[in-house]
Amino acid sequence: MDLREFRRNHGTRPLSFASERDLMEMMGLAPGAVTPFGLLNDTERRIHFFLDDDFLAPPGLIGVHPNDNTATVWMKTDCLISVLQEYCAAIHLIQA
């Protein structure tokens, strides 16, 4: 992914990987265990979630870790979006 192009197209600040401290503070997650479900821990709703809209195409399934990288939960992508809408600053569907 071209992060500079993504930044220009979506008006974000410069993008980089989050620090270990920021991951723990904002999402309650350790590096290597980052998952969309970590947004449920963002009580201040600071994080914007970007998702490739291809995940909505049939069969419309997405696999995510349940805040631990030892398992994967498969669910309908639109269900994931519904759950996250209540907990994150914004959800952005993007075209790849």
Helix coverage percent:
25-40%
Task: Give the overall average pLDDT.
Answer: 91
Distance between the termini: 9 Å
Shape: globular
Please identify the structural class as seen in this structure: alpha+beta
User: Which strand-content bin applies to the residues?
Assistant: 15-25%
**How many helix segments?**
3
Number of E strands? 4
In words, what does this structure look like?
The chain has helices spanning 3-10, 20-27, 77-85, and strands at 48-52, 61-64, 73-76, 90-94. The protein is of the alpha+beta class and 96 residues long.
In short:
The chain has 96 residues and is of the alpha+beta class.
SSE blueprint:
Elements: H1 3-10, H2 20-27, E1 48-52, E2 61-64, E3 73-76, H3 77-85, E4 90-94
Parallel strand pairs: 1-4
Antiparallel strand pairs: 2-3
Labels describing this entry:
single chain, 96 residues, alpha+beta, two-stranded antiparallel ribbon, 4 strands, 19% strand, globular
